[in-house]
Amino acid sequence: MKPTIVCLATGFEEMEAISIVDSLRRANLPVKTVSISNDRNVTGAHNVTITADTTLDEIKDQEFDCIVLPGGLPGAHNLRDSDTLCTMLKAQYKAGRKVAAICAAPLVLGHIGISEGHKMTCYPGFENELKGATVLTDGVVNDGQVITGKGPAFAIAFGLEIVKSLSDKKTSDEVAAGMLL
Questions:
Q1: Could you tell me which CATH number the domain at 4-172 has?
Q2: Which residues contact 32 (CB under 8 A, 6 or more apart)?
């Protein structure tokens, strides 16, 4: 099994990033936090600094089961502006592997053409960024290869959907039960 990476850019939504990593680790799925800059210390939208496991430059030539983009501003814009990340996302998608984005971060998928033809959700106000997508108001949307979430209130459900997608419903249900959901 290849790892999942959760990409962190300055201004990321802390609740989303940590909930996703926590859910995957509770399911014993390999996951790494990745700074998109050369500095492993990344400060979120609410001034919480996280030390990432690695940097994008250190892992850019590897393969992953899923690339996850937490939202937040200006985090989502910083993710979109990373040429290296956008190249990795396109290769990930072309290879048939999963991409996931929550809150404002689905705008990155729209920016690089991955939204085309998919059912997706996002933080209200970013719908126009999802070019060619059928935009739903659901909290979490799993359209096979593309998983999206609406925002911070759905971070745990989004993380559990990624767990289910990478393993199975039983594992996702067990993780949820352990969180008293």
A1: 3.40.50.880
A2: 3, 4, 5, 6, 52, 53, 54, 59
